[in-house]
Automatic annotation (TrEMBL), chain B:
The gene is MOCS3. This is Adenylyltransferase and sulfurtransferase MOCS3. Plays a central role in 2-thiolation of mcm(5)S(2)U at tRNA wobble positions of cytosolic tRNA(Lys), tRNA(Glu) and tRNA(Gln). Also essential during biosynthesis of the molybdenum cofactor. Acts by mediating the C-terminal thiocarboxylation of sulfur carriers URM1 and MOCS2A. Its N-terminus first activates URM1 and MOCS2A as acyl-adenylates (-COAMP), then the persulfide sulfur on the catalytic cysteine is transferred to URM1 and MOCS2A to form thiocarboxylation (-COSH) of their C-terminus. Keywords: ATP-binding, Coiled coil, Cytoplasm, Metal-binding, Molybdenum cofactor biosynthesis, Multifunctional enzyme, Nucleotide-binding, Transferase, tRNA processing, Zinc. Binds 1 zinc ion per subunit.
Amino acid sequence: MQFTLEFGGGLELLCDSVKIHKVNINLLNDSDILTMKDLLSWVRTNLIKERPEMFMKGDTVRPGVLVLVNDCDWELSGQLDTTLEDKDVIVFISTLHGG
Amino acid sequence: MMSNGGDSSEIVRELEELKLKKAEIEHRISTLEAKLQDTATVERYDAVSNGDSYLTAPELEHGLSPDQIYRYSRQLLLPSFAVEGQSNLLKSSVLVIGAGGLGSPALLYLAACGVGRLGIIDHDVVELNNMHRQIIHTEAFIGHPKVKSAAAACRSINSTIKVDEYVEALRTSNALEILSQYDIIVDATDNPPSRYMISDCCVLLGKPLVSGAALGMEGQLTVYNHNGGPCYRCLFPTPPPTSACQRCSDSGVLGVVPGVIGCLQALETIKLASMVGEPLSERMLLFDALSARMRIVKIRGRSSQCTVCGDNSSFNKKTFKDFDYEDFTQFPLFAGPLNLLPAESRISSKEFKEIFQKKEQHILLDVRPSHHFKIVSLPDSLNIPLANLEARLNELTSALKEKEDGHVNTGSCTNPSVYVVCRRGNDSQRAVQYLRESGFDSAKDIIGGLEAWAANVNPNFPTY
């Protein structure tokens, strides 16, 4: 399955300062589904190059990170249980405080 | 330069005096102008009562005066805004918290468009390094309160609105009283404890909150606590780790980025105040200046579990007043100096100057990020950023070894000391703490960093 993953608000610094990643993730077998929980652990293993604690806490994202699946807050689609589909766009954004 | 010291301090003193006088005169002018306008209105009414109605302004149901019709004509001509929108705007009151990068453009537009009453609160003074983004301030106000400067600018654009000045910090002790006087609150602050405090206060008072943030090349904007929408805590129930909270003064920001977000804050405020359009509630605008992308995303609604606005919340005015927001976020409301080390592990910038002059053997370690080091640095300093110190400790060891070897030849027997410097004297303390734990017992931090060096030793040393 193909996904577009975007990192913003400083989170891109954890993956070599690259903001947009087009990735291909293969399912183990055809009947399997891919959830946000699976995607997070894939991201942590494959994309996060430094300070993983700045991205995750436990099995979810750290406080202050918004997760958007197709421009929609993942709270509205089931958080970690959100089922992903081919060509979904997932955005991870750290909240800003400056001004 | 030294011989002119007396002259220049005299000039500076006179300049300060003149600037203060100028601000006072400007304030007096706008007060008088407002007064004149009121008198003119009364005179017109007098004319009506004398029966010369064909010579006077017609009495208009919307209550706009002829001057107001002329001033705001371009807004009145908008079918979707029109006279109702303007009339609502003139009756509304808005409090802008923070007269910095976000507050500057927001205040300019809010004053210009005719918000009836505009409150400005900020505890800070105008500095030269604010000017690139805090466009409401002028050089004449450097060293003066931002609120005074911003209020003068607002009055000079629109002398007919009421501008309230609060030259103080917003705290739990004064927040309820100040915020309660306004219809709409604009969060233009720069730190997590303020953001939680302002949102909680808006929930308690039932006020909509127009919240903007900007850092580096990115910005974010949303409207909280409006029409059943979420509050800040619904979105961020747990504060982020301190290491994820950066200030513009530490991480940098391109001036126009908060400018864009501040303008959009003004826009959302105008929409709320005039009751026109669709506010950015339950949605968030994300702005990425580098890639020229602006996306609007759907965010969650109000959380019934929210500790402040939720169904079973016991949060009240008393809880608010006693709440320690700095402790909750582990982040200071105001940037202040850290105090990690005992006195014997520290030296002042003046003491370090003597070491420099006496040519005592030492290593000067600068722990700022390398792009800071490139802006300016002290001569003969070794740059190892704090973040890499552990990994690059061998560079310090070999630099020390080199000095020691050089020393053997000169016959001296004292070991070279390590002095650590950074921009303001916080990271240097963290570095010294780490170095002492790693066996560098001579490590000392230079109190106040390069800013103290510039203030106390070399006034020609650039600060940023």
